[in-house]
Amino acid sequence: MATTLKSPPKMADSSSSGGMGRIVRPLIWLLVLLIVAALCITGTWFYLHWQSSRQLNPVQLAVGQSSSPAKVQYTKPAQVAQIPAPIFIKLDPFTVMLESKDSERMLFLGITLRLGDDQSRDRIEKYMPEVRSRILMILSSLTPQDVQTPDGKAKIIKEITAAVSKPFAPIPDGQNVSGVLFTDFVVQ
Fold first, then answer.
1. Per CATH, which fold does 87-187 belong to?
2. What is the three-class DSSP state of 177?
3. What is the three-class DSSP state of 114?
4. Is-contact 84 108, C-beta < 8 A?
5. Contact 119, 160 (CB under 8 A)
6. How many distinct helices (H) and strands (E) make up the chain?
7. pTM (2 decimals)?
8. C-alpha angle 158/160/165, rounded to 5°?
9. Which of 32, 37, 73, 155 has the maximal Cβ count within 10 Å?
10. What b/e sequence results for 33-48 when a residue is b if at least 16 CB atoms lie within 10 Å of its CB, and e otherwise?
11. Residue ranges of domains in the chain
């Protein structure tokens, strides 16, 4: 009987690239991933630094000035001005009889004055009897038809504004009355 000799199993060659490849390939991938991450972080930092160094206020063209396209003037926007709080003075209500040939009608009117400055408020408070007298003279000359239409009410506002804005006797300049507001308005 013939026997065949089996050759011993071949051992894997440790010097071949199979063993080293298992270690080197993940290291290369890890190195590539770190480089990509570093580039992303660096790009983000440069972009944000560039955005913060830019002037974010918009540039506006000069308005109302004629200029040729070659000579465009740019201006920075002005600081936003603080708007002062409104100054109101509420007057005691007025009750007057309206002039009418047919019937007797009565007007009950509450008024609040809107003023432009503190000096006007001080003057009106100091000269309140004269202010009330001026307003009463206007209201007592009204007819029922004057107070029933929106145009008539607007006319009353204009007349009261003009009367209260006029200067008082020793003072040369008038008051800054920017509005007359009706708080009560009853006609009976």
1. Tetrahydropterin Synthase; Chain A (3.30.479)
2. strand
3. strand
4. no
5. no
6. 5, 6
7. 0.56
8. 95
9. 155
10. eeeeeeeeeeeeeeee
11. 20-49, 87-187
* Strands annotated E in 48-104: 60-61, 74-75, 87-90, 94-98
Classified as helix, coil or strand, 141 is: coil
**Residue linked to tokens 């465009």:** 72
What is residue 46's predicted lDDT score, i.e. its pLDDT?
A: 81
134 and 162 Cβ atoms separated by less than 8 Å: no
Q: Tokens 């929106």 identify what position?
A: 150
173 Cβ partners below 8 Å, 6+ apart? 167
CA 67 to chain centre: 31
Residue at token pair 């003279």: 137
Distance CA 49, CA 6 (A): 73
Q: Residue 131 is encoded by which pair of tokens?
A: 């202010």
Cα–Cα distances (Å) from 92 to 98, 110, 168, in that order, read 19, 7, 20
pLDDT in tens, the chain (188 residues): 556 666 555 555 545 556 677 888 888 988 998 999 999 888 888 888 776 666 555 555 555 555 555 555 656 666 777 777 889 999 999 999 998 888 888 999 999 999 988 999 999 999 999 999 999 999 999 988 889 899 999 999 999 999 999 998 888 888 899 999 999 999 98
> Measured between alpha carbons, how far is 46 from 51 in angstroms, rounded to an integer?
9
Type of residue numbered 116: G
Which two three-digit tokens encode residue 66? 């004629």
